[in-house]
Amino acid sequence: MSQINKSTKKITILGKNWYSSMYFILSVIFIIWMLFFDTNSYLTHKELNSEISKLEHEKEYYKNKLDSENIQYKNLKYNKEAREKYARENYFFKKNNENIFIIINYEDTITPKTKPKK
Predict the structure, then answer these.
(1) Looking at the domain assignment, is residue 101 inside a domain?
(2) Is 115 contained in some domain?
(3) Residues 93 and 67 occupy one common structural domain
(4) Do 88 and 57 sit in the same domain of this protein?
(5) InterPro entries, from UniProt (predicted)?
(6) Do 14 and 21 form a contact (C-beta atoms < 8 A)?
């Protein structure tokens, strides 16, 4: 009777067992998927964070603008001279004994866009 020497060889990839390398490969694929392709990916979060930052800056801008408009409103509401000045500048109101001359400076009248024909 001869004994058959059965030696079992393990399949190795990168010096490890095949199942441990499969875990490594699947982990790498999972990380790549989560970073780039998933709906909650890093790139999506980066875009959303930049949009949030932009919207926060806009919010601050409009808050400051609203504050200045409220100051102007209160000034116009309680100050008769400021109200009169605003009406004269923006709506061309006048007193009974005044004349108003409105000078409009058009760019077309200063420099012609086409040369005259000779």
Answers:
(1) yes
(2) no
(3) yes
(4) yes
(5) FtsL/DivIC (IPR007060)
(6) yes
Q: Which domain covers residue 29, as residue numbers?
A: 11-40
Q: Using 50, 70 and 90 to split pLDDT, how confident is the model at 66?
A: very high
Give the model's pLDDT for residue 18.
60
- Whether residue 4 lies inside any domain: the answer is no
Encoding tokens for residue 36?
């780039």
Please state the three-class secondary structure of 46-92 as a single string: HHHHHHHHHHHHHHHHHHHHHHHHHHHHHHHHHCHHHHHHHHHHHHC
CB 11 within 8 A of CB 17: yes
Residue 109: the pLDDT is 58
Task: Please check whether residue 86 is in contact with residue 76, taking contact to mean a CB–CB distance below 8 angstroms.
Answer: yes
Residue type, 59: K
**Confidence grade of residue 110 (pLDDT, cut at 50, 70, 90):** low
Instruction: Establish if 1 belongs to a structural domain.
Output: no
